[in-house]
Amino acid sequence: MADLIERHLDKKWRYPQEWNDFVERSQLNKELDVYRKRCDILDPLVNRPGERDPNAVAELREMIVKLRGMG
What we know:
4 helices; mainly alpha; globular; 71 residues
């Protein structure tokens, strides 16, 4: 999940709808689904024309660090 969020921020998706598929599909792991739901809420602030919301981007980057620390 951390890699996917990072790809989204870097605009290096594996396929055009990768991010949408992620935010729209629940995760079986409820702890990870909390992160997915938060990504869905932040999506309009990050996935929009023009400049991305810097606070939303920072929160997603913090998620990447937390998710990588879970392993």
